[in-house]
Amino acid sequence: MPVEQAGEFSAIITGEQREFCCFGCQSVCQSIHGAGLQRFYQKVPAGETFSPPPELSSDLASFDLDEVQTLYVDQLGDIRTISLLVEGIHCAACVWLIEQSLVNVEGVLSADVNLTAKRLKLRWDNRQIALSQVLTLLGQIGYAAVPFDPDTAEGLLAKRHRSLLYRMAFAGFAMMNLMWVSIALYSGADQGEFRHWFHWIGFLIATPTLFYSGYPFIRNAFIGLKRQYLTMDLPIAIGAITTYSYSTYVTVTGSLVGHVYFDTVVNFLFVILVGRYLEAISKRQALSATTRLLELQPKLATIIDEFGQHHVVPIRSVNIGDHLLVKPGEKVPVDGVIIDGQGAVDESMLTGESLPIYKGINDQVVAGSINGEGAFTVEAVQVLRNTALSKIVTLMEEAQASKAPIQSLADKIVPWFVVVTLSLAFITFLFWWQVNIETAILAATSVLIITCPCAFGLATPMSIAVATGVGASKGILVKQGLALETLSKVTHFVFDKTGTLTDGALHLKSIVTLPNIEKYEVLRLAASVEQHSEHSIATAITEAAKQQQLTLDKLHDFCSFPGQGVSAIIDNKRVMVGTQIWLQPQNLIEFDYWQQHVKQLERQGISCVFVCVENTIIGVLGLADELRSDASTVVFDLLSHNIAVSVLSGDRKSVVAAVTAPLGEINRYAEVLPKDKSDTVRKLQQQGEVVAMVGDGVNDSPALIQADVGIALASGTDVSIESADIILSHNDLLAVAQARRLARQTLSTIKQNIVLSITYNVIMVPLAMMALVSPVVAAVTMPISSLLVIANAARIKRIFKG
User: Among 112, 263, 346, 496, which one carries the catalytic annotation?
Assistant: First the structure.
């Protein structure tokens, strides 16, 4: 094992030197523990080389740091991506500081911070910079980062809350004791012989409170100044230290002029800590939908070894092909196939199906679903990040980390916020200094505390985080915040017909043949050609042949023409199965003979597929698809909001008109080939429409990409449709209307939050500059503004109630 790798390995397992850690000590140590290496702890002083003892040589030689990275990094190529949990993020200024510090570093390709989840999505070139160097840089600007996984996140969150509670409790205890000192001083003791005695008591109580309870503010402010960055902890630290220093000066010198304000320092530190704690709790509650999805991810699995023995192992130890036992009441740990046993599985969080689904041998199960009764053995097909549940969670996290265009306003303002705050505080101090030094200090401190971009920075990401979490719980998977903002402005919805407005399950309704040909012979030939096609028409035809127990012919020279038909050679004859438009130019014999039959079927909403052998049409297959039960509800809802609706289909006009007749006055585009659907969307956009395309992501990907917002209907396990901006994983058309309502509510909430945060600063800052607000009152109002923004964002959840 290379010396440099050994050094990094030693730092990882001892936790001695974070700057040498490739990942972040806590998470990686847990992984190493799982590999059975926990007994090899060894302290290595800073700067010294790690020399493994002889008994470790074999273990370390086989240990590969890349193997540990595979647990957290998407791919182990030169370009890597990882999600890091960052401690110390609490406002928009922190987000700006981290992103700006990393984005200009050579080798860092992107750095996107999720304020609400306190996570950093990092993408870097491993040839130019190591992950350990990035973590070192984060440490230098005051932030500790570890690879994200739900267990680690929960542990660090609990640790942070405990630390916050301890500091808050200490400040609260000090505040109660100082209250009695303040009462004595305000009652006349400041004029008597006990004046200095009470001042020293206040000093002894306030000093440890400032340096323990106020330590996070002082530390972050100092690190920011050291790195030449202005953080939002700087104004708070300046206000606390200035007020404390003046009070200490009056106490130490024994001056009879002036008052001490130790109680003010302790009080506003306590109130700020209470505010931050309430913010953390409120965020957690507002993101409850996100939390519930994360909690669905199993942490343990019961693996069955080759000897039939059962072992409970961490989910990260499960590999593809492993056999896992799922008992009643347990969560399915992986995506897989049942190879033994049976059970009733609840997949409601993934598919929207409220009732448990019976699953037996060869049935597929998905991670996170719950086995209600029975027991079965699953062979793992997808594990960890590749399961359907993990993909849903990843989509949700990426959406929460993305930035909607409306957030650019906050990103532009935040860098100047601290400078403006310090400038206003300095102006306030200079103005009131002419009147009274104490008033100047208190007024300036109030300005420093009360002016905060926290509420402004939370306005957009908090709303998007709540919306994406709530949407995911209802099967609405939003890939990025931009999609929500654009969807709220859509003026025209375009629906693909087959599989979107209709059930997508075509059924053979009729077979019309030439007088001398058996109808099942036509069906057998058609099914023989279609057996290699994946189109829904092919599925319907081959299924009908299977029901009639027909034997299909062998074929060769199979050709597929998307949206038109298929052809192949059977018994040395060319057999073609396809649409009238495709076959008409082929100079087929007796084409006009079939027109009366075709028109009669199309008036009933039945699509016609022609079967030809050597340029002779021998029959017509009639296939029908029915509208979804909720199609009319969705379309009429959109029309009632003055939103135009169009339907695209490759079917003939008469068929499209018959099938969509219950939908009322909508635009119908018939005989549109898959490659032409994007052109139709583009033409609508050229007319000034903001277009949302709704399809199934199969043959309408170009149209989904061309549209301003692409919405794809998918099953609960198919959430990887790249061409869509929003995926409806419950395959429920009503979710289209719900997604639009969610988008409009989200954008409205963002605007409300921005107005709320600006209004707070416009009202409170002038009052503080006029010395009408004390530092304690400023400390109370500062978190209240953030809490109002969080509470307002949480209201988004109500749109799915009632």
Answer: 496
